[in-house]
Amino acid sequence: MYITQFRDEKIHSDREKQWMYVEYEEPVLPHIDKIWLSPGAAKDQDFFRILLDKGENDNKVRISQNPFRNKE
Fold this sequence. Notes:
It is a single chain. The protein has one helix and four strands, in the order E-E-E-H-E. Helix 1 links the parallel strand 3 and strand 4 (about 60-65). The longest helix is centred in the last third of the chain and has 8 residues, at about 45-50. The strands form two sheets. The protein has a two-stranded antiparallel sheet with strand order 1-2. Helix content is about 10%, strand content about 20%. It starts with 10 loop residues before the first strand and ends in a 9-residue tail after the last strand. It is α+β, with helices and mostly antiparallel strands.
């Protein structure tokens, strides 16, 4: 985990694409156990499954039942 301020040079952003991220030196995917998506993001779950679910019994992508707002 990396905690910093938005002005840190390690923080990359693109306002047009509404992206903000940190580039890690070590690969992150092997360390992800689960990703919980809001109900509004359920339509994008296949994208995450392609990246994360490598084996037959992998089920790292879950849809949360918490009442997140759906942004349209």
